[in-house]
Amino acid sequence: MANYPHFTFVFIITSFICFFHGKSSSSWLNNEDNGVIMVQGRREDRPTRCDFSVGKWVYDQSYPLYDSNCPYLSTAVTCQRNGRPDSGYEKWKWKPNGCSLPRFDALKFLGKMRRKRIMLVGDSIMRNQWESLVCLVQGVIPTGHKKVTYNGLSMAFHALDFEMSIEFSWAPLLVELKKGPENKRVLHLDLIEENARYWRGVDVLVFDSAHWWTHSDQWSSWDYYMEGKSLYKTMNPMIAYQKGLTTWAKWVDLNIDPRKTRVIFRSVSPRHNRQNGWRCYNQKTPLKFFSHPHVPEQVVVLKGVLKRMSFPVYLHDVTMMSAFRRDAHPSVYRRALNQAQRQHPREFSSDCSHWCLPGVPDIWNEMLSAMI
């Protein structure tokens, strides 16, 4: 892996400060301290730290914060509209240990983002999160004062009175996937500009990239890896992932100004795909504990890349908290089932990767709002 200039700091959500006071400049970030800030608040006058990633799920009747009639939801995640018989999965909120996660406040979020752009970049799970964020916000905006625009696989929700936008940019691998000779698909581990050109000038960038890197040969999106002029038929997926993330990290270090743009990287969203995709079917409550907590390899690789960056990137760690929620996937309710079809659910494919909405991504966005 390439060597970087010694980093000045890496902000990680496991050390994110719950609240700020005394901002003295328009800069997103306070650049006072050098060194690795794994635990902020070394000065006595700083507020209490809050680790949002460690806690428990608590049942709360006041949730969800919107319903599945939100017009911006795609069919595959509207589990209630698709006939899911239970709705308890919508009513769990996340309670971090030792502090509270602020409830999402749409007007406050819009106020913070006035005249700004927030862009979520990644795969279909990030699209899942984008739909959640739009639905959390759109209810307080009158009809005629909001719109969605589309540009290929990318899209943007515009809150016209606030002159702000919530955007989604499709780039599941971050680096470039191109057609090569004989129509072969080539994943260029060291090229990124074709995707990155859309990220310039954005005030808040939220990235994810994990799932596509581990697709099996049957589902792989490429035929070859390429780095420089070297072509590879096979490569260890985590080595390829590290190389791709390193290309992304170099681009951020060289092209983004931390005084103008906040960069957040969301960790891998867990899947509950064991038992041929049926592990999440008919689950109605979160898991209570893990007998053997496991940190996915993607998280280890991601943290390693972030630590070598000079740009201060926030790690939005949702992996373990979401792993409890095997009850919150669409399963067979990724499509509308009529009464007869519901009698034979195992005849249909089960989605244990994406999330029902309202649901878990709403909590991710509560965390995101607290970070901005």
Automatic annotation (TrEMBL):
Keywords: Membrane, Signal, Signal-anchor, Transmembrane, Transmembrane helix
Signal peptide bounds: 1-25
Molecular functions per Gene Ontology: O-acetyltransferase activity
Pfam families named in the record: PC-Esterase, PMR5N
Positions of the Trichome birefringence-like C-terminal domain: 101-371
Record has Signal as a keyword: yes
Localization terms from the record: Membrane
Domain Trichome birefringence-like N-terminal: 49-100
InterPro entries (alphabetical): TBL (IPR029962), TBL_C (IPR026057), TBL_N (IPR025846)
Family classification: Belongs to the PC-esterase family. TBL subfamily.
Protein name: Trichome birefringence-like N-terminal domain-containing protein
Gene source species: Gossypium klotzschianum
